[in-house]
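Today's session is about reading a structure prediction critically. Students often jump straight to the picture, but the first step is always the sequence itself: look for stretches that repeat, for charged clusters, for runs of hydrophobic residues. Only then move on to the predicted structure, which in these notes is written as discrete structure tokens rather than atom positions. Here is the chain we will use throughout the hour.
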Amino acid sequence: MTRSQGEIEQFDVAVIGGGPAGATAATELAKQGRRVWLLDRPGRIKPCGGAIPPRLIKDFEIPDHLIVARANCARVVAPSTAEVDMPIDGGYVGMVDREVFDEWLRERAEATGATRAAGSFDHLEQDGEEVIVRFRSHGNDRSGPLSQIRARVVIGADGANSAVAKARVRGSEKGGFVAAYHEIVKAPAADPDYDGSRCDIYYRGDLSPDFYSWIFPHGDVLSVGTGTARKGFSIRQSVTDLRRLTGLQGETVRREGAPIPLKPLPRWDDGKNVVLAGDAAGVVAPASGEGIYYAMVGGQLAAEAAHSCLATGNPKALRRARRQFMRAHGRVFWILGIMQRFWYTTDKRRERFVTMCADPDVQYLTWQAYMHKELVRARPKAHVKIFFRDLGHLIGIGRTRDAEDKIEDREARTAAG
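Below is the predicted structure for this chain, in token form.
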């Protein structure tokens, strides 16, 4: 049927933002047979280390050619320059180029049935039970004419400074942010200290007063970056200093910066027909800054909530996205938030934190939780030992040997029969 002149194109769901969250939401809804419209601003690449866990690769069917590197070890560096290697036993961290990865996700959404549009979101207008989405098509400047579509549900996946969230979701101003900046640099051709299968993480107050700096391999290039929530701290200078410190003075391919949220918003929907996903919802893990996996899970849950809302006509269904996400990952976010607030505040504490990373139990539980996205429950004695070690560091005595020795003696007696 041909639309009459002036008639607005109609969709079930409009997805604002084509990053991992938005593209995943669009794909999931298109699979359900929903009419989906996906808006993305061309030329936007998020500053990101590009790390993805094996669970993401499996759950979201990521093809092998998108993995530009596989890291099997992380090296953490203390303020004193002490280094601790954390090898991954039986696993790896996949590394992706966000420019290529995000575009592949958008292409998959389109191939599944979503309608793609290149442009910049402008504003929403409520029209009865539907929403009119106003946007400026790619090629128009900000003073150019507005285009529009109509949708029954809107998914806001438009980043940390989400215009959708600010316009429609109460409490969206309560999120916390880290300013992130990185430079994509050509990998050194002959540097004995550079390892293309290792991620380097620097816990040094001179490079970041409250977060960390990183060097992540991406095949022929690497990401050198830093993050901080401290106003006035120069993250560009930090990256310059890190490159000078490590001798990474090769060609700079591109530079990118953006705010990274580190706290899930208290609400993700407006009670009518708008729900948030990804950075717009604040789902980047504290302490680690990991966001791609959580963005894609958030997009999947937002799609499920939108589909349910459309099927039932009940806007309360949109609340399920946040409720299900926090049920699955809220505890991990809480623990990581405590870690960041305590361990990342002084160089003395950073030094102790790096020392703890040398513990085999810490390494095992860290990598198992990262790769599988679940708190490991199979080794309760390891959790107890880590608790006592952590407690010792917190009160400044390094280790509570008596408690650890008792546990180890008990294990030895049990093994001996």
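Discussion point for the tutorial: The chain is about 35% helix and 25% strand.
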